Amino acid sequence: MNKLLLGVLGFTLTSLFAQAQTYNSGSFSYHGDPLPYRYLKPVIDENQKLPLVIFLHGAGERGSDNEMQLIHGSKLFSDSLSEYPALVIFPQCDKESYWPNVNIIQTETGINFQFEADLLPDSPLQLVDLMIDSLIQSGIVDTNRIYVGGLSMGGMGAYALVAANPDLFAAAFAICGGGNTEVASRYSRKTPFWIFHGALDDIVPVEYANVMNAALTDAGGNPILTIYPKANHNSWDSAFAEPELLKWLFAHNKSTTKQ
């Protein structure tokens, strides 16, 4: 195990192998750019490799307090840690930034999101990408079981991160997000997606879910689309209540699933 890399990530051997039912704090940095994160992990032995889950929060949880990103979704994983043991990481995006490279245009009818084809460079999501690489190099991650999910801005980030790494993730989910349909063919056959959205969403309209579902399907994928007829933007409440979500997510393993 690469102790230097673990130290850079804010982990230590003691913390890695100690029992933790709550989220510990850490920070990753690259060329002076910081990425605070909170992480959850089960008890493991020194030679055990863990599934890795990256969860990307929404715009309302941005900041530098390394706390806000736990508001939505963290309890889902902590309550299920014994059933689905994994290294779960909640990074935090800076207040003035956005996970992927997106042009946000306010119009008379609402907000229009234009997703750039070059999704990661100079974005906080690039730091997440580099952090994942460092974790893989450290040897603690089961590379056949890496997952990503997110809500709103984080759902957009999930699409972008998978598009930038089409061979990396075993499965992904996006809640009330959207993505670049032109790059869906990069990963549609390789990464199973579960898409959630509220039909009444007035922040990120449900059309963004519909067009991503269509793009992934047209490119040969088989995404799952769940639309909540009475939900507005906070469709994450319904998504996190789905009894099959974690079972579906962790059932995917690249070593046993034909890509």
Automatic annotation (TrEMBL):
MF-aspect GO terms: hydrolase activity
UniProt KW keywords: Signal
Signal peptide: 1-20
Residue span, Phospholipase/carboxylesterase/thioesterase domain: 48-240
Pfam families xrefs: Abhydrolase_2 (PF02230)
InterPro entries: AB_hydrolase_fold, Plant_Biomass_Hydrol_Est, PLipase/COase/thioEstase
Protein name: Prolyl oligopeptidase family serine peptidase
